[in-house]
Design brief:
Blueprint lengths: L2 H8 L5 E3 L4 H11 L3 E5 L5 E6 H11 L8 H4 L1 E2 L12 H11 L3 E5 L5 E6 H23 L6
Helix pairs in contact: 5-6
Length: 149
């Protein structure tokens, strides 16, 4: 299974926020959309980074202050540190990357860095469980001789 299988199933809609927006804008969008991450873009819609619930929570803890007016640029994970994947990447490899890097969201990009979608650890687990369910069903049917010889 590949990343493209997840994108095909869930779609390629990505919620973005401008790099010059403030944290309260991000909080509103995360809450309204019931999502955990926003891709940060510039005026040309080029990826500048990602801002997650975790990024905002860490900034709140470190500042000990109300950060609602702080610029997204100050709390986001910048492009230089951003971990991404492509459509052809294997799901097991993606899961390994997410586990080792302790991240829950991966932007999906093409060879030019153009944003194609985003996947979450929940998306990966969902497709892996669905695939395992089918494997179990077929193996069970085979064991129970449900296939003609």
């Amino acid at each position: 299974m590949k990343v493209e299988d997840i994108i095909r199933d869930k779609g390629n809609a990505v919620h973005t926020i401008h790099a010059e927006a403030i944290v309260s804008d991000a909080l509103r969008m995360l809450n309204e959309k019931r999502i955990g991450a926003l891709i940060v873009v510039d005026n040309q819609q080029k990826i500048q980074g990602i801002v997650t619930e975790r990024d905002i929570m860490r900034q709140c803890y470190e500042c000990h202050a109300n950060i609602k007016g702080v610029a997204i640029q100050e709390v986001m994970t910048p492009r230089e540190k951003l971990v991404v994947c492509d459509l052809a990447e294997d799901i097991d490899q993606v899961m390994d990357t997410m586990t080792k890097k302790r991240i829950r969201h991966l932007p999906v990009v093409d060879e030019k860095g153009v944003l194609l979608g985003i996947i979450s650890v929940g998306d990966v687990i969902k497709i892996l469980l669905t695939h395992k369910d089918y494997e179990i069903k077929y193996l069970k049917d085979y064991i129970e001789n449900k296939y003609p010889v």
